[in-house]
Write a sequence for this structure.
């Protein structure tokens, strides 16, 4: 049996934020089986962790269709579970994600968990009309990282009420995911994340996108500390900080399910 949990990450209560599947393993199981479990769970990501030593774990993430290199909300989910059930006296957890060799850290901060993620500033990227057709609105700025496409708008209402065409997003040449974002009168900025290329139409609250968005908004707004509201149907709040060398991402969570995979 595999201990299994579902944590609503970046949520102030159940049924908010982004549900992450969490599997705590004694040793690695077959890659194909991990993929089948993630597909059966049908959550944006399921995290699998194996303990290396006290406070240190190997970490991998799977979407319903494939393994992914970096995931914020499922890292939050695994840290939430480990702090609560496996490492109750720990204040810091370290993770090594072998897919791309990321070293990640999670710190307990009262009722929040803070994650240290890589800083991946997006660069200017050529506009293509297909981008506007895909999301249903004309971006004011187009940026990209090696992995993701970032569309910036000046009006948060456009982001909040956007109804993108997922099949057209899946056909875009660049971007494993598409992030849309805009400045906000209530928060530092709002954002949404679409991943139809890997079986996730909209990720309710995406942590890993902050690796790209925080450097951009920190420079544009002249602020190191930022608050992002992801305006998906479920919604969630993420507190962020740009240290110059890393991105700090924090939030609260709620345990939804605890059981075993047979």
């Amino acid at each position: 049996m595999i201990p299994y949990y579902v944590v609503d990450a970046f949520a102030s209560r159940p049924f908010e934020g982004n549900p992450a599947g969490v599997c705590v393993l004694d040793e690695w199981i077959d890659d194909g089986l991990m993929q089948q479990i993630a597909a059966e769970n049908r959550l944006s990501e399921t995290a699998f962790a194996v303990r290396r030593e006290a406070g240190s774990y190997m970490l991998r993430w799977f979407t319903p269709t494939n393994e992914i290199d970096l995931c914020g909300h499922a890292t939050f989910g695994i840290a939430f579970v480990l702090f609560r059930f496996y490492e109750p006296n720990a204040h810091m957890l370290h993770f090594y994600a072998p897919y791309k060799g990321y070293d990640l850290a999670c710190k307990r901060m009262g009722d929040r968990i803070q994650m240290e993620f890589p800083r991946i500033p997006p660069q200017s990227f050529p506009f293509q009309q297909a981008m506007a057709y895909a999301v249903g609105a004309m971006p004011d700025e187009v940026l990209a990282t090696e992995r993701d496409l970032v569309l910036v708008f000046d009006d948060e209402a456009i982001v909040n009420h956007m109804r993108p065409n997922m099949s057209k997003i899946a056909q875009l040449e660049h971007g494993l995911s598409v992030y849309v974002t805009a400045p906000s009168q209530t928060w530092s900025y709002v954002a949404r994340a679409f991943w139809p290329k890997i079986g996730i139409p909209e990720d309710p609250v995406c942590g890993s996108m902050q690796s790209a968005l925080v450097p951009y908004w920190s420079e544009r707004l002249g602020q190191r500390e930022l608050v992002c509201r992801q305006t998906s149907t479920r919604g969630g709040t993420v507190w962020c900080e740009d240290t110059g060398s890393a991105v700090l991402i924090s939030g609260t969570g709620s345990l939804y399910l605890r059981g075993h995979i047979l």
User: Anything to note?
Assistant: The chain has two domains: 2-117+249-261, 123-242. The longest strand covers residues 253-261. The chain has a mean pLDDT of 96.
